[in-house]
């Protein structure tokens, strides 16, 4: 049974001067525990898809169902990590991280320990009492990631979560997030510009077209690669051929534009 | 090679020095101002009957404070100003919040607010006095009126300028509109609120002094008008000096509140 379904979803941004069609007829579905990546040129509507699934915007056409219920009515916890970190500058790190539980009136006292531990795991030790302005871009991004994870969502929407990180940290965090998601059997959608990251982390990769955004092609990641953690996945013999295929696909779309 | 600590120390020293220089200049200007005034008055560069002099003001103030008459005027004005300031500021914040809560209501109200804002509030003085009686109630109402509309406008537009992505983050956690307000919109407008506080200090003084001109019963505004009528310009100047001092103190207090808020608002 599918967990999340997008059924002929289109989205327009309206303004008084006209409209932009950001998405055109997007249909796909995810099973529970599945990990899907979205790849595509800038402006093809990846962030738009995530915002719709997160229930922040309503699509202008089509249906989005979560466990067969309309997404707007579903009370299921969704964790959305936006493209920019949007940490609240007037809250310190620990209060930022515990924002989700606070909104749900969950006791944050017990979660504090977990939060500090999780911060440590992403390589941020002893930052809990600092304020976001004193952190670097990569550090802030990791805080935003922890903020999303601690909320314990059933489905995770990650919009370029590792884009501001150095390569080493990025690989480590890919491992950590991959492990967490597998262990807790979470469903996730990852937006990325990094083909390697998409292959290493996901079960399926959706390559998108721009103007308007639509799904161009779907790549299944071979089971052998999936079984490896992201770092080792990159060394698997089947990794490179898939990488090349996706590269070609994206490259040909670049070519179309000219 | 200097050590890190030494570099930091010299940075601190530099800062202290800069602060001192600024302070010295500030004092210098103040003293020069009063000295020049005194000299100009004594040498008849300016008419001492019209512009008085610091020494006359000083003696006059001492006398009036000694017999207690000044203190009652001063406390009345201060009371009215502080109340007008508080009600105007809180009222403005409340109104802005109301407008923010009902988007359509705010759109409907927009032209009326613009007109109210453009209107010189002190021109309403006579009507207010007729409505509320010639007492401190009218004067407080003036202090309130002068600041409330502009506060509403400033804070409402600050609410609307808050980056919607903060609310997006909260909504993704399933926050209600009220929670978005509490966690994102309100704290993000804190800086605007604080700057509004400072502006309102000045505005409520305008409202209250004009109110006292009109009601003409007691208070520093009344003393100015009275001194003007009996040609006692030393009294006028004394009142002005007192107003300047009180306004400055009030401004400093607001600054203290600001510092406290910044520390504790988190
Ligand atoms: N708030 C908005 N108002 C109007 N148009 C918008 C808005 N947000 C996005 N768009 C338009 O919708 C299209 C898709 O935007 P979206 O942010 O989803 O792209 P994206 O795939 O996430 O791009 P990137 O990889 O650069 O993040 C773009 O053409 C963009 O101009
Ligand atoms: Mg995007």
Helix content range of chain A: 25-40%
CATH topology of the domain at 1-76 and 194-258 in chain A: Rossmann fold
E-strand count of chain A: 10
Overall structural class of chain B, as computed from helix and strand content, comes to: mainly alpha
Low-confidence stretches of chain B: none
Q: What is the average of the pLDDT values of chain B?
A: 92
Beginning-to-end CA distance, first to last residue of chain B? 41 Å
Secondary-structure element pattern of chain A, one letter each: EEEHEEEHHHHEHEHEEHHH
Question: How many separate helices of chain B?
Answer: 12
Distance between the termini of chain A: 41 Å
Largest interface: A-B, 24 and 19 residues
Strand line-up across the major sheet of chain A: 6-7-8-3-9-10
Give the integer mean of the pLDDT values of chain A.
Answer: 89
Strand content of chain B: under 5%
What is the C-alpha radius of gyration of chain B, as a whole number of Å? 24 Å
The CATH superfamily of the largest domain in chain B turns out to be: MetI-like
Number of DSSP strand runs of chain B = 0
What does this structure look like?
Chain B: Pfam families: BPD_transp_1. Chain B: It is a multi-pass membrane protein. Chain B: Keywords: Cell membrane, Membrane, Transmembrane, Transmembrane helix, Transport. The complex is a heterodimer of chains A (258) and B (266). Chain A is α/β, with parallel strands linked by helices and 258 residues long. Chain A has a domain at 1-76 and 194-258: Rossmann fold, CATH 3.40.50. Chain A has 10 helices and 10 strands. In chain A, the strands form 2 sheets. A 6-stranded mixed sheet of chain A has the order 6-7-8-3-9-10, with helices on both faces. Chain A has a 4-stranded antiparallel sheet with strand order 2-1-4-5, covered by helices on one side. The longest helix of chain A is centred in the last third of the chain and has 19 residues, at 239-257. Chain A is globular. By secondary structure, chain B is mainly alpha-helical. Chain B has 2 domains: 1-46; 50-265, Orthogonal Bundle (MetI-like fold). The radius of gyration of chain B is 24 Å and the shape is flat. Chain B starts with a helix and ends with a helix. Chain A binds chain B through residues 51, 54-56, 75, 77-80, 82, 84, 86, 88, 90-92, 95, 99-100, 102-104, 131, 151, and chain B through 163, 165-166, 168-175, 179, 183-184, 187-188, 190, 265-266. Bound molecules: adenosine-5'-triphosphate and magnesium ion. Magnesium ion binds at residues 46-47, 83, 159 of chain A. Adenosine-5'-triphosphate is lined by residues 13, 20, 22, 42-48, 83 of chain A.
């Amino acid at each position: 049974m599918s967990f999340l379904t997008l059924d002929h979803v289109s989205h327009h941004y309206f303004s008084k001067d006209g409209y932009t069609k950001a998405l055109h007829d997007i249909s796909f579905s995810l099973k529970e525990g599945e990990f899907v990546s979205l790849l595509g040129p800038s402006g093809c509507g990846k962030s738009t898809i995530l915002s719709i699934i997160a229930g922040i915007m309503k699509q202008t056409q089509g249906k989005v169902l979560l466990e067969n219920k309309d997404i707007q009515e579903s009370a299921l916890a969704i964790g959305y990590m936006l493209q920019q970190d949007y940490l609240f500058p007037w809250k310190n790190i620990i209060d930022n991280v515990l924002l989700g539980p606070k909104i749900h009136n969950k006791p944050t006292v017990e979660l504090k320990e977990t939060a500090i531990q999780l911060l440590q795991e992403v390589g941020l030790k002893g930052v809990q009492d600092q304020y976001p302005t004193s952190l670097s871009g990569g550090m802030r991004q990791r805080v935003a990631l922890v903020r999303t994870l601690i909320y314990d969502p059933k489905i995770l929407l990650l919009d370029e979560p590792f884009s501001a990180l150095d390569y080493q940290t990025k690989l480590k965090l890919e491992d950590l997030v991959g492990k967490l998601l597998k262990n807790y059997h979470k469903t996730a959608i990852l937006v990325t510009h990094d083909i390697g990251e998409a292959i290493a982390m996901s079960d399926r990769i959706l390559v998108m077209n721009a103007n308007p955004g639509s799904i161009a092609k779907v790549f299944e990641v071979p089971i052998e690669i999936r079984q490896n953690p992201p770092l080792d996945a990159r060394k698997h013999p089947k990794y490179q051929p898939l990488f090349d295929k996706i590269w070609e696909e994206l490259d040909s779309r670049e070519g179309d534009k000219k | 090679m200097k050590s890190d600590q030494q570099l930091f120390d010299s940075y601190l020293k530099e800062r202290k020095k800069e602060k001192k220089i600024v302070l010295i200049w500030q004092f210098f200007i103040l003293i020069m101002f009063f000295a020049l005034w005194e000299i100009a008055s004594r040498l008849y560069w300016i008419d001492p009957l019209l512009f008085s002099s610091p020494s006359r003001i000083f003696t006059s103030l001492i006398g009036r404070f000694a017999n207690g008459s000044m203190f009652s005027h001063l406390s009345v004005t201060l009371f009215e100003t502080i109340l007008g300031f508080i009600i105007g500021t809180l009222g403005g914040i409340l109104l802005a919040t109301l407008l923010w809560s009902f988007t359509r209501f705010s759109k409907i109200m927009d032209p009326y607010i613009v007109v109210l804002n453009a209107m010189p509030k002190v021109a309403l003085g006579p009507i207010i006095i007729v409505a509320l009686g010639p007492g401190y109630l009218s004067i407080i109402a003036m202090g309130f009126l002068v600041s409330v509309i502009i506060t509403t406008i400033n804070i409402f537009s600050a609410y609307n300028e808050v980056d919607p992505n903060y609310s997006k983050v909260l909504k993704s956690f399933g926050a209600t509109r009220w929670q978005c307000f509490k966690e994102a919109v309100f704290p993000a407008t804190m800086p605007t609120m604080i700057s509004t506080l400072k502006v309102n200090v000045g505005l409520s003084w305008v409202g209250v002094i004009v109110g006292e001109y009109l009601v003409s019963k007691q208070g520093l505004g009344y003393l100015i008008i009275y001194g003007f009528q009996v040609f006692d310009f030393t009294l006028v100047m004394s009142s002005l000096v007192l107003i300047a001092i009180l306004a400055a103190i009030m401004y400093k207090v607001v600054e203290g509140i600001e510092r406290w808020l910044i520390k504790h608002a988190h």
